[in-house]
Design a protein that fits this description.
The chain is α/β, with parallel strands linked by helices and 272 residues long. It has two domains: 160 residues, Rossmann fold, CATH 3.40.50; 93 residues, ProC C-terminal domain-like fold (Orthogonal Bundle). The protein has eleven helices and eight strands. The chain has an eight-stranded mixed beta sheet with strand order 3-2-1-4-5-6-7-8. It is elongated and about 70 Å long.
């Protein structure tokens, strides 16, 4: 698929995942630029994909249709000051930085700057990210299509109002860590009851994957599926009783809330 010319600023976990996803879907290497200060990272991506690389923002950045800001929130302000001289309404700016609003970005670039704000998660590294996206009023329909096309290389997208992005950060942005912890806990339980660590982990991973797949493929509410597997007085009922007694539901919901509030705090601290 022809996505035009795409520049990725930052070759870390998320920037690297996006680059890998684009190349896996046969993006033209001649249309990709990676801006990354670490020479070793630049050389590795150049060796692997034969793309253009740069160690700093240069004038040619303005030639790209989409510029992806794959840097940490605390690095955004300095980055935007370096980008500003080269940006025009032709350049779609796509941010993956948590807590940074589209208005904050546009205010530091050009008044008519098209900006897409996204929140992917770590599963982008395996092409299975849940990604929320919102757009400012300057984004044209063709640029929205380009954004969705880029996102499709690392997962699937849902469009939300920008005011909901902190909630998204708490749920799907931080959520994989909560699921990893649950997989670890399930595995520990299996080991506690006599399974080998390898067997317990394999079963835990497939159990979580299978349960998530069932919800996604059947479209049924998780509560309905939970009731279906819970026989009165049975083993699952006993396990669920223990989880509820320990506040499992409250703890997970509270973790989402805490992460969302942290995201809002980060944006507020940076003046976003």
């Amino acid at each position: 698929m022809d996505r035009g010319r795409i520049a990725i600023i930052g070759g870390g976990n998320m920037g690297g995942a996006i680059l890998h996803g684009l190349m896996k879907e046969h993006a033209n290497p001649a249309n990709i630029l990676l801006v990354e200060i670490r020479e070793q990272v630049r050389k590795e991506f150049d060796r692997r994909y034969k793309i253009a690389t740069a160690s700093a923002i240069e004038g040619r950045i303005g030639d790209y249709d989409a510029i992806i800001l794959a840097v940490k929130p605390q690095d955004i302000e300095v980055l935007l000051s370096k980008l500003s001289p080269f940006m025009t309404p032709h350049n779609l700016v796509i941010s993956v930085a948590a807590g940074i609003s589209t208005a904050y970005i546009a205010d530091r670039l050009q008044a008519q700057q098209p900006v897409a704000r996204t929140m992917p998660n770590i599963a982008a590294q395996v092409g299975a990210s849940a990604v929320a996206v919102c757009f400012n009023e300057n984004v044209q329909e063709s640029q929205k299509k380009l954004t969705r096309s880029i996102i499709s290389s690392i997962g699937f997208a849902v469009e939300v109002d920008e005011g909901k992005m902190d909630a998204v950060t708490g749920l799907s942005g931080s959520g994989p860590a909560f699921v990893f912890l649950m997989i670890e806990a399930l595995s520990d339980g299996g080991v506690l009851m006599g399974l080998s660590r390898e067997t317990a982990l394999a079963l835990a991973v497939q159990t979580v994957y299978g349960a998530a797949s069932m919800v996604g493929k059947t479209g049924e509410h998780p509560a309905v599926l939970r009731e279906r597997v819970t026989s009165p007085g049975g083993t699952t009922a006993e396990g669920l009783f223990t989880l509820e007694k320990g506040g499992f539901r409250h703890l997970v919901s509270g973790a989402v809330r805490a992460a969302a509030e942290k995201s809002a705090a980060v944006g507020k601290k940076l003046g976003s």
